[in-house]
Amino acid sequence: MTKSEAPYARERSIAIRAVLRASQLTSSVFDKLISASDSLTKSDKSPVTVGDFGAQAVVNSILATHFPDDPIVGEEDSSDLKTEEGKSIKEQVCRLAREALKGAATNCPGLSGQGVQKQEEEDLTEEKLLAAIDRGNHEGGAIGRMWALDPIDGTKGFLRGGQYAVCLAFIVDGVVQVGVMGCPNLPISPADPKPSGDKERDAQVDKSKLGTVYVAVRGQGAFQRTLHDETETRISMRSLSASKLSQASFCESVESGHSSHGTNARIAELLGIKNKSVRMDSQAKYASIARGDGDIYLRLPVGDGSYQEKIWDHASGLLLVEEAGGKVTDLRGQALNFGAGRTLRDNKGVVAAHWDVHGQVIEAVSKALMEEGRGSLL
Ligand SMILES: Nc1ncnc2c1ncn2[C@@H]1O[C@H](COP(=O)(O)O)[C@@H](O)[C@H]1OP(=O)(O)O
Ligand SMILES: [Mg+2]
Ligand SMILES: [Mg+2]
Ligand SMILES: [Mg+2]
After folding, report:
1. What single DSSP character describes residue 6?
2. Where does Mg(2+) bind (predicted)?
């Protein structure tokens, strides 16, 4: 079977094109713009920047051109841009989105030519760009085609100059079929240093060695390419058996408010793991274990566990890890349900690990939560 005949080949190509363009936008926002006046605080107290809005406008415009009937579940909406406070951000968002959509054609397999470009450029008025952002307001659900978009996952990492990801997934009947993730600050070669937000240390990082894109289609494997070269290399998780589990390394959030560092530390202890956990913002954690830099991604709820994870925070990362040989479930070992709406309301927490050890990790998670008196989460 050639690539163009493979299931979801068109969705795959368009998703890569959209993520490349949005990643170019976010990189240029960071290089040129980011200052306090380029971001707002949302009603849930989380930050949102020119980059988040701009990337959502770019991805949604491209999806609207190529799949006009497909609904999109996207993180952002344009309401904050329509206020007096949001006016200057709105102007920047529109200028950047226009530049990104008009920019030189990105290297993207199966798509070229003026026709595609011209179609995309027709939608560049302010009104149309804001409407494109708001195409992301779909409620989700278990039936039919839809896209899930996090235009910048890990906005706090983005603002720090650390890790963030542009994450786009295609979902059919609640099952993720295509996942594409742009990680502009992740080193192409895992051996190279990655920016972490520490200004002094990050000054030593060679920027020409950063910028990866991950692509997975269900049943077709997981691949890494770079932002500038379309050559794809297959990736897979490090093999890990029960007897080698103590040599594993964990990935976890930088933010202790997003996932419980204390519980993770106890789980590592229960599994005999001595390696220090690697802290990183965003779904870059999924990419990192999918290509074998680390082995286990744990995201355990903080406090009473009332936070509902969002589908756009996990859809592309989950497929990447599954296609690289891993298993991704909630803390009870149940599959994540992407068909329950905008959130993973049927699930609590996330546990991603190689198939061969996932069961043991789940057992340790149960034990640690019981010890903490949080057995009600199980
Ligand atoms: N209270 C919370 N618990 C868990 N995740 C959260 C919480 N608040 C925001 N997030 C989301 O967690 C993700 C980042 O987590 P991580 O710590 O792994 O980088 C982001 O998607 C962030 O949204 P956002 O997309 O706005 O950055
Ligand atoms: Mg956000
Ligand atoms: Mg996110
Ligand atoms: Mg986001």
Report:
1. S
2. 75, 150, 152-153, 313
Q: Which atom of ligand 1 is nearest to the CA of 153?
A: 25
Distance CA 34, CA 367 (A): 44
Q: Is 63 helix (H, G, I), strand (E, B) or coil?
A: helix
The active-site residue out of 52, 123, 281, 330 is: 52
Q: 15, 90, 29, 89: which is closest to 59 by C-alpha?
A: 15
Which CATH number goes with the domain that contains 152?
Answer: 3.30.540.10
Q: Is residue 233 annotated as a catalytic residue, yes or no?
A: no
Tell which residue, 226, 248, 218, 222, has the closest CA to residue 235: 222
Q: Give CA–CA dist 44/258, Å, rounded.
A: 13
Q: What are phi and psi of 94, to 5 degrees?
A: -65, -40
Strands 165-172, 175-187: pairing kind: antiparallel
C-beta 150 within 6 A of ligand 1? yes
Among residues 222, 149, 212, 192, the alpha carbon closest in space to that of 23 is found at 212
Quote the pTM value. Answer: 0.94
Number of domains within the chain: 2
Q: In what order do the strands lie in the sheet with 233-234?
A: 72-74, 145-153, 165-172, 175-187, 210-217, 222-226, 233-234
**Do 140 and 50 lie in a common domain?**
yes
Domain boundary among 214, 234, 254: 234
Residue 44 CA, distance from chain mean position: 20
Residue 123 annotated in active site: no
Q: Is 152 annotated as a binding residue?
A: yes
**Owning domain of residue 281:** 242-377
C-alpha to C-alpha distance for 375 and 163, rounded to whole angstroms? 33
Mean pLDDT by groups of 10 residues along the chain of 378 residues: 78 97 93 75 89 97 96 98 94 94 59 58 84 98 98 95 97 99 97 87 90 98 97 97 94 94 96 96 98 97 93 98 98 98 98 97 98 94
Verify whether ligand 1 is closer than 6 Å to residue 255 (CB atom): yes
- Pocket test of ligand 1: the residue of 150, 258, 278 to mutate, having most ligand atoms within 8 Å of its CB, is 258
Shortest CA distance to 186 belongs to which of 156, 207, 201? 207
Task: Please tell me the distance from the alpha carbon of residue 113 to that of residue 111, in angstroms, as a whole number.
Answer: 7
Which secondary structure element, helix H or strand E, spans residue 257, and what is its range? none
What DSSP element (H or E) covers 99? helix 87-102
